Amino acid sequence: MSGALPILIGGPFAAAMVSFLFTGAIGRALSVLLATASAVAALATSIEVMRSGVQIHALAGWGAPLGIELRIDGLAMLMLLLTAGISLAVTTFAAGYLKGDAQPHFWPLWYFLWGALNTVFLVSDIFSLYVCLELITLAAVGGTALSGDRIALSASLRYLMSAIMGSLAYLLGVAMIYAQVGTLDLTQLSGRLGSSWSSGAALSLVTAGLAMKTALFPLHFWLPAAHSLAPAPISAALSAMVVKASFYVLLRFWFQLSEPTSNQLAAHLLGALGMAAVLWGSVQAALQERLKLVVAYSTVAQIGYLFFIFPLFGGALAAGRSEWAQEAWKGGIILILAHAVAKSAMFLVSGALLQTFGSDRISDLKGAAVRAPLTLAAWGIAGISLIGLPPSGGFIAKWLLLTTAIRQEYWLYVAVLLLGGLLASVYVFRVLWHSFLTPEEMPSVSRIPGSMSISILALTVVLLLMGLRPAIPLEFTLIGIPLPAGDLR
Amino acid sequence: MVLDLLLAASLLLTAWRSLYANDPLQAVGLFVAYGLLLALAWARLDALDVALAEAGIGAGLTGALLLGASRHAADRSFSDRIASPMMRAFLAAGALSLTSIVALALWSLRKPRGPGIAPLVSAKLSESGVKHPVTSVLLNFRSWDTLLEIGVLVVAAFSILALRLARSPPRKYDPMLAALVRVMVPILGVCGGYLLWAGSHRPGGAFQAGALLGAAGVLLQLAGYDLLADSARRGFRALLVVGFGTFLCVGIGVSTLGHQILEYPPTQAGSLIFWIELVATISIAVTLNLLYAASGSGAT
Amino acid sequence: MTAQYSVYALAGGLLVGFAFHALAIHTHVLKRILAWNTLGSAAFLVFGAIARRNTGAPDPVPHAIVITGIVVAISSTALALALARRIDEENKK
């Protein structure tokens, strides 16, 4: 058992309590310390997973099925590291970005969101996952509403309603699974669900609910408003992490609970919705006038790619080629990571530009390349990853997905992967193009605090490193993944 | 059996009437009636803990929240429905197929495949520190869920406080109400204390007790106590988070003594659970009151 | 199987349909909040039926799950109502 685990879990929650009770400088410092300790503990836990494989922790000492277990395999470890890294960047950014009376309300919610994200990636119990996802939802909705104007509040309310509908569908599915197997533990459920009629119904409910929370087209209707109207640090966390949390749970259900080859039809349905999401989201992103809406619609598109993993993986297994399935799996996971880093960087860039120029209209960005060259450079690098060009994490991910799609001769997926990249370059370069235009008079700018620039810079460096040194995360994706196909273990 | 059928039929009827009522007050009133019928159903299902929680929180406090909101909802848009006939037919078909899928799946699951977790709970009950199975699951076997669930209440409170709602105008002094409050608050307090104590060996526990104490607080608010005015005070804030904080500290603290997270030493399990439940009850009651104050029900 | 299982599982299934329909077709906030609360309680009732499937003492695990669910439901309901109230305040400005 890892001694770092209690700190990893408790740190952000304790930080939330402290920042709620003590709003002064000491409280702020103490809460940052506690949260940073959690990030360090995530690193320590990861090292342990690297050294000795999957870590299992029986909460309250009982073990499954009576108690709840935490289980950290390679995927969970990568998600925990990602949460720690992005949360640190967001925390640093927010310290400079937030002004006035939003500050004391932001911190408790933000640390709670961070802590809740950790719990989803740790816990290996399908009902506990429901509670963790609800914890995330309420914190995320509260954070979105911090903007305080009428449109943002309505967007938060719609976000809350959609998320709850998704959760309830998930909960019904959980009830049926418990009725069928008599346990709630993910590991114990693996391989025991069978392919009966009721298990199909349960998995459909779970999938529909989680697709709603992940904002898969056409269930994405709530996302653009909520993600674009939240304060920039919250937007970054929403697009980078919160939608990934429910997608992560979906991955667990599909690859750990059910036999991926048995529901290839459903997998292609998810893939088709993913393709529609890529096209629809990218076109919408290219048409938006406001920077944050561009980024939000781009999230709709990028989520679409994630759903390619289901048909590509299942198709490879059905063809008996587990190495192709591995490519799909690795590609999907790296895409989660790369998109999270790129998207949080983009939202932070949007926030920085908003504060520099006092507007987030793309047409007001004329001259920005001269006035804020570093910020725009960060936008460009994040954009390169979204498009899927080297050297970036996005390139590695798309390359893997493309390779396996070509090998399996899924030409439609190949076409959408290529076309999506092209469309992404339209909305990425449109912003850059505007920033290089010469305005009639140079816009007046306000300087942004150094902490904001540092956090953006750190994210872009990580993104480039993922492209230059992809071997490290790629190796981890396979640690202890309990896939039903034995040869992947 | 006949009773169950009657109960199920009236559940469906009240739910239908509540969901499609054209008057907000009527809709909420029927929803509360539905909640109380549901509590009866839970009692029939031998789940007194759930019956208490449903009556107190599901029907009672949720009803109180909704009742306040229903007063502001009395506009024409209340019975608005999606207009497009195509869409309506599509949604009706969707609801019908959803019902059939759920019902058929549940019917195909009517024969238990195994004993489930229940025998394990009975086998380990004596080591859990309490004698009542549901409490042992909530506070020991699956205490992680309960910790996070108290966390959900805390986050709801944080989110609501972050909304910075305008305060309601003070209420007029009502001597009848004041008299009622003087009688009811101590009674509710004693009953809540009893439920908390009872939880260790029979139906009851922190959530049910918290709901009763919450109801006492709601009465105080009705009599003029302005909760939102206190929400910036550190003492109030401490009460709000003390349940979650204590639970978290105990859970993490035991892990430094060589145990797993949330693993109580068997000899101290009973008393640890008692203290956690006690502070949790306080926080639950305070939080439920905040939720009530924020719903606008206090406004006159 | 117990007879109670069939009765309450079926009632739960029907309530799911009612509530889903009401949630989808109505546009008013309060109506939708009522509908999701009903949907939630229907899911809980399904858990309750499952706990009663074996003869003998009921399974306490679903009961604990439902108590947790009820608390989660009131938390999100309260947040939704507070948001609605705040939107009202903004509209009146």
Summed up:
Chain B has helices at residues 2-19, 24-44, 48-72, 85-108, 118-124, 133-141, 143-162, 175-198, 206-222, 227-230, 234-256, 269-294. With 300 residues, chain B is an all-alpha fold.
Total beta-strand segments of chain B: 0
Name of the top-level CATH class of chain C: Mainly Alpha
- Approximately what portion of the residues of chain C adopt beta-strand conformation? under 5%
Any idea how many domains of chain B?
3
Poorly predicted regions of chain C are none
Work out the radius of gyration of chain B. 22 Å
Number of strands of chain C: 0
Q: Please mark out the parts of chain B with pLDDT under 50 across 5 or more consecutive residues, or reply none.
A: none
Taken in chain order, the helices and strands of chain B follow as HHHHHHHHHHHH
Largest interface: B-C, 93 and 74 residues
- Termini separation of chain C comes to 59 Å
CATH architecture designation of chain C: Orthogonal Bundle
Number of helices of chain B: 12
CATH topology of chain C: Helix Hairpins
Class derived from helix and strand content of chain B: mainly alpha
- Number of helix segments of chain C? 3
Radius of gyration of chain C: 17 Å
Main sheet properties of chain C? none
- What sort of overall outline of chain C do the alpha carbons produce when their principal axes are compared? elongated
Q: Could you spell the SSE succession of chain C in H and E letters?
A: HHH
What are its keywords?
heterotrimer, C: 93 residues, mainly alpha, 85% helix
Secondary-structure map with pairings?
The complex is a heterotrimer of chains A (489), B (300) and C (93).
Chain A: H1 5-21, H2 25-52, E1 55-58, E2 69-72, H3 74-97, H4 103-122, H5 126-144, H6 150-181, H7 186-189, H8 197-214, H9 223-229, H10 232-257, H11 264-287, H12 291-306, H13 309-318, H14 322-357, H15 368-371, H16 373-387, H17 393-407, H18 411-436, H19 450-468, H20 471-476
Antiparallel strand pairs in A: 1-2
Helix pairs in contact in A: 1-2, 1-4, 2-3, 3-4, 3-10, 3-14, 3-19, 4-5, 4-10, 5-6, 5-10, 6-8, 6-9, 8-10, 9-10, 9-12, 10-14, 11-12, 11-13, 11-18, 12-14, 12-18, 13-14, 14-16, 14-17, 14-19, 16-18, 16-19, 17-18, 17-19
Chain B: H1 2-19, H2 24-44, H3 48-72, H4 85-108, H5 118-124, H6 133-141, H7 143-162, H8 175-198, H9 206-222, H10 227-230, H11 234-256, H12 269-294
Chain C: H1 3-25, H2 29-51, H3 60-92
Helix pairs in contact in C: 1-2, 2-3
